[in-house]
Design a protein that fits this description.
Blueprint (H helix, E strand, L loop, with lengths): L1 E3 L5 H10 L5 E3 L4 H5 L14 E7 L4 E6 L3 H14 L6 H9 L3 E11 L3 H14 L18
Parallel strand pairs: 1-2
Antiparallel strand pairs: 3-4, 3-5
Helix pairs in contact: 3-4
């Protein structure tokens, strides 16, 4: 049985498994080889696709979203929607305009990448659900059909 290595937990699990004649092998997602080897080019954050992101407002609230497109394009769209007053296209723009709040564009960040669209949508909803007072609201209707 392959199990992830977690200090002080994995050893105990191995002892329990040994009682039932189950062989265990520890695995890790980070290896020494990974630290020294690069398997691909380093990308600038704005060139990232398939990501979950967070845009902060000066009031302390945040907007979490997901996109399959370039992060830079999505961020520019949010900025443009606020600039030209397309409040129906962006809940973030609506919040900023209606509350007269300042969006901290320079602090916008990528939370993680996820290539699978359904997982990315689930993670978006989870990130929003973890916030105390998000700008946007998670809804079950935002899930791809047939996934719930």
């Amino acid at each position: 049985m392959f199990i992830p290595y977690i200090r002080d937990v994995s050893e105990k699990f191995k002892c329990i498994a040994k009682r039932y004649n189950i062989k265990t092998v520890f695995t890790t997602s980070h290896t020494l080889r990974d630290s020294f080897m690069r398997t691909g080019p380093i990308r600038a954050p704005q060139d990232t696709r398939n990501c979950l992101y967070c845009i902060l407002c000066k009031c302390g609230r945040s907007y979490n979203g997901e996109t399959s497109r370039l992060w830079a394009v999505t961020l520019r769209e949010h900025m443009r929607n606020l600039e030209v007053g397309h409040l129906e296209r962006s809940r973030l723009a609506q919040h900023s305009f209606e509350e007269n709040h300042h969006v901290l564009w320079e602090e916008a960040m990528i939370l993680e990448t996820e290539k699978e669209p359904a997982y990315r949508k689930y993670k978006e909803v989870a990130y929003i659900a973890c916030l105390l007072n998000p700008i946007n609201q998670a809804s079950a209707g935002s899930f791809p059909s047939g996934t719930l």
